[in-house]
Amino acid sequence: MGDFVNFLSLKYKVLSFILFNFFNPLNVYADNIALNIKPHKCVALHQGQVCYQKISVAWYSKNQQETAEEYCLYIKNNAEAEYCASESSGYVYQFSGKSDTAFELKNSAGEIVASRDIKVVSVYKGRRRSTTGWRLF
């Protein structure tokens, strides 16, 4: 009976490891750097409206050894860095946009080591209901 319980425990640990490391939508791992963005969705009231949201961005090393390398956070297709700091850092970004936006973390050599997307969604799809001049009350 003890062997069967140990087998189930091992099976559970392996399944948990696979699900957490390969299907975790909040973290993207590349070159031992994890990029975490919360929240990863911005909700606008109507489709096509600008969405405003404070986004918490953090990155850290997967391994325990800290290096002095500097990383910079960029918005995709933007040449200017939003924020630069050492290997483990956090930043609050004031997001405003009408469409999905990609964030990229680049090392000092300019290589992209991690990236994440902010999805812009709307509560009401399509156009606003037009108002008519007729009102009963």
Question: What is the number of helical segments per DSSP (H or I, 4+ residues)?
Answer: 1
- The best one-word shape is elongated
The largest sheet has its strands arranged as 3-9-8-5-6
Secondary-structure class: alpha+beta
Oligomeric state of the chains present here: single chain
Low-pLDDT residue spans: 10-30
At the first level of CATH, the class is Mainly Beta
**Proportion of strand residues:** over 45%
Would you kindly provide a written description of the structure presented here, covering whatever features stand out?
The chain has 137 residues and is an alpha+beta fold. It has one domain (26-124): Immunoglobulins (Immunoglobulin-like), CATH 2.60.40. The chain has one helix at residues 2-22; strands spanning 27-30, 33-38, 41-46, 51-61, 71-75, 83-85, 89-97, 101-106, 112-124. The termini are far apart. The model is unreliable at 10-30 (pLDDT under 50).
